Amino acid sequence: TNCMIIGRAEAFASRQSLAHSAADGLAMGLGFTAVLVLLGGMREIIGRGSLLEGAQMMFGADAANWRIDLLGPDYPGFLLAVLPPGAFIGLGLLIALKNDIDRRLAARAPAHLPGAEPVTAA
Q: 91-100 pLDDT, tens per residue?
């Protein structure tokens, strides 16, 4: 993920003004954060059947009760989801989902928007 962020910053910020670069950096940072939170949540749900397991390691003893069991206490878990390859598989699935959504939206969009031609003086 670091390489994607640095590559985006290099490709965009080197050609834009400071204000545009800062706005792009903020938007890209928020977007990457959202994807990482979604990916982490997805992996935790599939891998352990819960959310916020082990939150006390980051937020202190009070967070031990934050665990949310989503798939029940008998869920055996799926080890691959919590291992590093699970992150790549999950990211690939998220990218495939995004591409499918984009394809469906493009298919529903009209090919020609009426009134989109520039107005010229006769």
A: 999 999 999 9
pTM comes to 0.75
Domain of 63?
A: 2-108
In a domain, 113, yes or no: no
- Rounded distance, CA 95 to CA 93, Å? 5
Query: 45-66, pLDDT tens digit by residue?
Result: 999 999 998 899 999 999 999 9
Furthest-apart CA atoms within the chain: distance in Å: 76
Is 10 among the domain residues?
yes
Domain count, the chain: 1
